[in-house]
Amino acid sequence: xxxxxIPWLSAILLLPIVACIAIPFIPDKNGKxxxxxxxxxxxxxxxxxxxxxxxxxxxxxxxFQLVERYPWVPQLGLNWSLAVxxxxxxxxxxxxxxTTLAIFASWNVTYKPRLFYTLMLLLYSGQIGVxxxxxxxxxxxMWELELVPVYLLISIWGGPKRLYAATKFILYTAxxxxxxxxxxxxxxxxxxxxxxxxxxxxxxxxxxxLELLLYGGLLISFGVKLPIFPLHTWLPDAxxxxxxxxxxxxxxxxxxxxxxxxxxxxVEMLPHAHIYFAPVLAILGVVNVVYGALTxxxxxxxxxxxxxxxxxxxxxxxxxxxxxxxxxxxGAVLQMLSHGLxxxxxxxxxxxxxxxxxxxxxxxxxxxxxSMPKVFALFTAGSMASLALPGMSGFVSELTVFLGLASSYxxxxxxxxxxxxxxxxxxxxxxxxxxSMLRRVFYGKxxxxxxxxxxxxxxxxxxxxAIAACLLLPIVGIGLYPKVATQTYDVKTTAVATQVxxxxxxxxxxxxxxxxxxxxxxxxxxxxxxxxxxxxxxGKGA
Length: 542
Known about the structure:
Structural class: mainly alpha
Distance between the termini: 28 Å
Keywords: Membrane, NAD, NADP, Plastoquinone, Quinone, Thylakoid, Translocase, Transmembrane, Transmembrane helix
Largest sheet: 2 strands, antiparallel
Protein name: NAD(P)H-quinone oxidoreductase chain 4
Order of helices and strands: HHEEHHHHHHHHHHHHHHHHHHHH
Number of helices: 22
Helix content: 55-70%
GO cellular component, one term: plasma membrane-derived thylakoid membrane
GO biological process, one term: ATP synthesis coupled electron transport
GO molecular function: NADH dehydrogenase (ubiquinone) activity; NADH dehydrogenase activity; oxidoreductase activity, acting on NAD(P)H, quinone or similar compound as acceptor; ubiquinone binding
Strand order of the largest sheet: 1-2
């Protein structure tokens, strides 16, 4: 059978960038033509992504696929090297889906529309580049590239404190990303060969002291993006000032880069250091869950409350990665996909509400359920998904993370009990602040804080209903039939877990305890070591 070797990933990555060239020449006065053009490019790129993956991606192969490698700057060892696997492929689909809907959500942008849609398309390409790069130097360049459009989108189209929020965002993320460059150079030049290829870097064996240093630096870089407490303070400010479409991308895609980087670089390339740091990740994850939930409860700004909620939910990604087994890592990836959809839906509906009320302060809202029943229904559905209602994706992902940690051989029972109990406290607080938000915004005394009649509010329009429905349908679909999502990455998470489990018994036999405090897992007994090795063998056989 004749088969064309199509460079799918280059086409998907470069299409939005190339499309930007035509924007200055499109005749347009009020932005209507430009928004249709940008939406058409977004849809075309997402359709190309789906078609390319459906045609040539093999779900049963855990290795890099659709590999493209072209010399770019040979003097620096920089190659245009792209590839995808079970970790990056679903996140690229999430990127195309959420970013296209964010472009559709920016229908009312009239201020500098040419620049706005140019930046949105550049951001589209930058995000895909981060997930598709298989060269660590290219990964760093794409990581830096996506920062610039976000900074400009916040600083130009944001709220009253947009310059402060944008500057804080760029300082945190740009400074932290230096550790990616330093760590990448250290890994590339270690040993007999110099390479930035991620597959080759994963095959290298580093001294444990070097692994620990590299892991710590990369944890800071990705921890800012995730974000991990106490590196999170830029996020509420950025969300509070960004426009709704930018917040959709920020929460739906950009935060997932932190989790992706932890799995791709920290876990895959530095598995021995990951065993050392895994208990720390579990503790940081619990702090994120509890702190984010409690902080969200005290926020009076609607978007800042949802931003703190994102901090809480991303804590489950850390706990899943820290579980050191297939179930935990699978739960972490599913949580990233689930939260990407849920957060995008909630921030979009936040924007819909703001367009009617011209305020984000919860205390100035109330009684809007009667005048905007469709917005209320959609907001309620998104909130139910966020609080992990059974039948929605959030429930499946967070339950998988809990089961992953509970079934982990790497931790003592007291440690697992404490972590699970504290994370459950965060789950209990989540419905409280979300349901309280719904009650105060949509119920209560009518006309509270408004100088005009609530009956003048226009309910959700067909375009807004379509965007929200596009996000809510996969949330329900994954909740009812998780295999829709899990089949895209199951083979890869098994391979990653096997890699960690192969390192765990050897490491445990050489240590009396992973940490001297005795809180974490003791040295494994021979029977447990044998069990872990058998699990690893089964993973290889799969």
